[in-house]
Design a protein that fits this description.
Layout lengths: L6 H12 L8 E5 L3 E5 L3 E5 L5 H17 L13 E3 L2 E7 L4 E3 L2 H12 L17 H7 L5 H19 L8 E3 L8 E4 L2 E4 L6 E3 L2 H12 L6 H11 L9 H20 L6 H11 L15
Antiparallel strand pairs: 1-2, 2-3, 3-5, 4-5, 6-8, 7-10, 8-9
Helix pairs in contact: 3-7, 4-5, 4-8, 5-8, 6-8, 8-9
Length: 293
């Protein structure tokens, strides 16, 4: 008796067949908004959601550009990609050597290298810090209607503020989601990963991801953050635009939790807690938010 493939496995099999790879004995690494699989021959397959073809193409282009610039980063396989499989964009990557999650120091080291690079001739587009937030709020079916309405109003308010945000450092290529989970620490040093949000934009956006872990979630110590600022040469929390960028990052983190709480009941309490924090129901920050993935 054979077991039918799951929808994700069916996509994996179709995508691998199209580029001449064998999906037999593939192992899941992470099955979330994006599905990531490991093939026995040292290849990692990343399956993204329908409609994200441009982001998948951008990931591959940025990876190859970083390789040319000598920046330590995950490397895409040398084949024509992304490929489309059952409506999903799929990309293929060299498997990393043994590694662990990066540190705050690793994040700032890599960001300093990235932000110093000249702008490439790539169609990266402008940073959109609000991408997919409407979809996340719509998918958050377990939160009260009043909270969903508040999240939508908050989103619109931040979008309006973003248009006239204060000027800061010169724009450059930004990672878009720069946190320790997108850095792999190997024996040879840290590597940057996950380029689907890479774009042209304010470098402060990348710096805010770490700053909010001090001021909002309380998951980075004052000492770690001080060292981060010393290495980069800027303390973004002292910038006049910090409040806007931090609030936008907080909204992203909250809607991410709320979206996935709809299908994972163990995350519903955390999702509601984050909403309560933003709505002033849980005291002053930092709030000690817990990871949900």
């Amino acid at each position: 008796m054979t077991t039918a493939a799951t929808p994700t496995q069916a996509v994996l099999q179709t995508a691998c067949l199209s580029v001449g790879l064998d999906a037999a004995d593939a192992e899941p690494i992470r099955l979330a908004e994006n599905a990531i699989w490991r093939l026995p021959m040292g290849v990692v397959v990343r399956i993204t959601q329908p409609g994200q073809s441009a982001a998948a193409k951008r990931e591959v282009q940025v990876s190859r550009w970083l390789a040319d610039q000598g920046v330590p980063a995950v490397r895409a396989l040398d084949l024509q990609q992304p490929v489309a499989a059952n409506g999903h964009p799929v990309t293929f990557w060299h498997e990393l050597p043994p590694h662990e999650i990066g540190t705050v120091a690793d994040v700032v080291t890599l960001l300093k290298q990235l932000h110093a690079l000249p702008k490439p001739d790539l169609p990266l587009g402008k940073l959109d810090p609000f991408v997919r937030l409407v979809e996340r709020i719509d998918a958050a079916s377990t939160i009260p209607d009043d909270d969903r309405q508040w999240l939508n109003v908050r989103l619109k308010d931040l979008q309006d503020q973003w248009v006239s945000r204060p000027k800061g450092l010169p724009e450059c290529v930004v990672h878009g989601d720069a946190w320790v989970g997108n850095v792999a620490r190997t024996e040879a040093g840290p590597l940057l990963m996950d380029f689907e949000r890479a774009s042209f934009g304010p470098p402060e956006w990348d710096l805010v991801s770490t700053a909010v872990k001090l001021t909002t979630t309380g998951t980075v110590s004052a000492e770690e953050y001080a060292a981060f600022c010393e290495t980069y040469g800027v303390d973004v929390s002292q910038w006049e635009g910090y409040k806007l960028l931090a609030a936008t990052r907080e909204l992203r983190m909250t809607t991410y939790a709320a979206q996935h709480a709809a299908t994972r009941s163990e995350w519903r309490r955390e999702a509601q807690y984050r909403i309560d924090c933003l709505r002033g129901r849980a005291g002053a920050p930092p709030w000690q938010w817990k990871a949900i993935m």
